[in-house]
Amino acid sequence: MSARGSIKDMVSYKQEGKSINVLFAEGFKAVGIGLLAKQKLEKHSTSTPAFLLVLEGSVEFQIEGTKCILNSQDFVKIPPSQEHEITALENSKMILVK
Fold first, then answer.
1. Torsion of CA 52, 55, 74, 19, to 10 degrees
2. Average pLDDT score, the chain
3. What is the Cα–Cα distance from 3 to 5, expressed in whole angstroms?
4. Is 15 left (phi over 0), alpha (psi -120 to 50) or beta?
5. Which of 24, 37, 41, 62 could form a cystine bridge with 86, CB 3.0-4.6 A?
6. CA distances for 25 relative to 10, 33, 53, 67, 85, angstroms
7. Element containing residue 87 per DSSP (H, E)
8. d(C-alpha 8, C-alpha 85), whole Å
């Protein structure tokens, strides 16, 4: 039987900073990210292509100087080696797959 879980239970918010939890890591990695309003995932890059899906809330996503707003159910493909950052406009939960 496949492992089953709930994003609602596995991705949380933390007053002291961002919440990041590895949800799956066999062949690919799925990471749950929880940010309270105004919290930020600072500028960084990834060595592999990634896919970011906003489950709830709204975030400002910035990559290579270009900004866009991602709302619940929106996603973005993140190419390797491009610096990007995320700022929560409201309490937000996301899944990052890479």
1. -40
2. 89
3. 7
4. alpha
5. 41
6. 15, 15, 17, 29, 23
7. strand 84-88
8. 23
Supply 65's token pair: 């100087």
Q: For the chain, what is the total number of helices (H) and then of strands (E)?
A: 1, 9
CA distance readout (Å), 59 to 13, 29, 39, 95: 14, 22, 10, 13
Tokens representing 74 are: 């929106």
Q: Which percentage of the chain shows pLDDT scores above 90?
A: 67
Give the pLDDT confidence score for residue 22 in this predicted structure. Answer: 81
Residues with Cβ < 8 Å from 76, sequence gap 6 or more?
51, 52, 61, 63, 68, 70
pLDDT for residue 13 is more than 90: no
Compute the Cα dihedral for 88, 82, 95, 74 and give only its sign: positive
The two tokens of residue 58 are: 């709204």
The predicted model scores a pTM of 0.81
Closest Cα partner for 55 from 10, 85, 95? 95
